[in-house]
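ZP: hey, is the adenosine-5'-triphosphate complex queued? I don't see it on the tracker
AM: it wasn't, my bad. submitting now with these inputs:
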Amino acid sequence: MADAQLRPILPQRMGRVEFLPALMFTAFIAFFAWSLHQAEVDIGELIAGIPNMARIGADMIPPATDRAVPMMLSLLVTFQMALVGTVVGILLSVPLAVLASSNHTPHPWLYTASRGLISLFRTVPDLAWALFFVASVGLGPFAGTLTIIVDTIGFCGRFFAENMEEADPGPAEALTAIGGTKLDIVTCAAIPCALPAMINTSLFSLEKAVRASVVLGLVGAGGIGVELSVSMEMFRYDQAATIVLMIFFLVMAVERFSSLARKRLFARQ
Amino acid sequence: MSVALTMPKASAQATAIREAQSVCASQPSLLVAGLEKSYAGGATPVFNDVSFAISKGQSVAIIGANGTGKSTLLRCCLRLIEPDKGCVHIDGADLTAACKTRLRRMRSGVGFIFQKHNLVPRLAVLSNVMHGAIARRKGARCWFHGLAPAAEREYAMHCLEMVGLADLAARRADQLSGGQSQRVAIARSLMQKPSMIFADEPAASLDPHAGEEVMETFRSLSERTGMTLVFVSHQVAHAQRYADRVLGLRQGRLAIDVEAKALDTSILGAFYG
Ligand SMILES: Nc1ncnc2c1ncn2[C@@H]1O[C@H](COP(=O)(O)OP(=O)(O)OP(=O)(O)O)[C@@H](O)[C@H]1O
Ligand SMILES: [Mg+2]
């Protein structure tokens, strides 16, 4: 008897099955199986599609160079859309982010309103914004630029506000003690203290904007995306290949630039 | 009816003000009467019914164990934290009843030195000093030294000279040593042309030598300008050497209020023990 008490109990191979987790697990499996059906996942079709893929792939090589110059110009427009959209978006984000930061907002209502606006800009997908702007200002790069602006505000507005909330509160308190106004405190303490983080956020948003601006052309909002959709519709897969390669190099170049800039920024601290 | 209810309270406050004031011969620089503060969630107040008056030109040390509310008290005196009860008068004007605009103006006459210097790291030393004039000069001209009027720039240099750092004016604030940063913070408060300086453990993050330097700076400034100084310190030696008078905060009350000369081991033993 004493022996049995001293000996540790060997755990059972399987723990006791709890009812509720088991039910939830079963429900999840059932829902996933239904989702597979709804998504029309079909291995047979995938296999049947392989020859098509091979044919398109073969058509892509060698990439066409006949329209290289207009494509380059179109790519440049894409980049310019992204650049203008990002810069304007960042400039608009700064005041909005001040209203949307819990420690610098002048009024709780403004806080809620600006947070709401930023969330709206962020959660509605960029293609939806692009369709909206194409419908309102017409086809072309301006619709794309407006889309990038809205997208940038959704991204930078949120993260700038967080950057300002996370920055050292000390300088802001010092300026409060001196008798500074809210505006003094924001421009002299909050923004300078959050600046490195805000520049970092801005560089990310430029990368994001370049990637996003490529697809905006697909819905007619200007740039290289238009060329891509035309080439695909005309079965000119060799031209499409050129465009994809160009996009690849543009995105790479922007990412390289932004990571270099980031390194220099933080090396100096 | 309501008058009858509030009367005793108001007269209690008036009595507290009168009692605190009676210590000073003339108009006190700082008068604190019946001050009370509890943080949300804290059951007992950090301190209650704290009253004292400090006359012009006096140098006063506040001592006390960790967490007794010295920093809270100092912040309440400028309403960086709102006190729950009581009042604070600065040069005879009621700070606790002041509206926002007036509060800013009153704050601008008092320098506040923090344990951590709280300079804006990415700006030049001279811009940081210029911020001291922010309440005096409305608008954007004192945000950066490059925008400031010539007279203010000259005065900022003069403030830097007073703390012995004029040659670092163009340096970025995050490239200074701890002692230098603290002295720039002092220059920033001098830029306010203050009648009084509050300092919350100004030497605590500094090595002994730099700490002495900062305290010496305070002493020579108060000798030269005749301003009032209120500083918090954990170093009894600093309180004895650099203060005329010592206030001790213990269990939410003023347990000590003596001349610095009279501070001896028996008082300190009973106070910290
Ligand atoms: N923001 C806050 N919220 C809640 N409680 C706080 C807050 N700040 C301080 N306290 C509490 O109030 C009390 C007094 O804090 P305070 O910082 O004023 O003490 P102190 O005397 O300055 O201490 P130290 O010597 O460590 O600087 C402490 O018990 C602390 O825990
Ligand atoms: Mg403290």
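AM: back. Confidence is low (pLDDT under 50) at residues 1-7 of chain B.
ZP: great, adding it to the tracker
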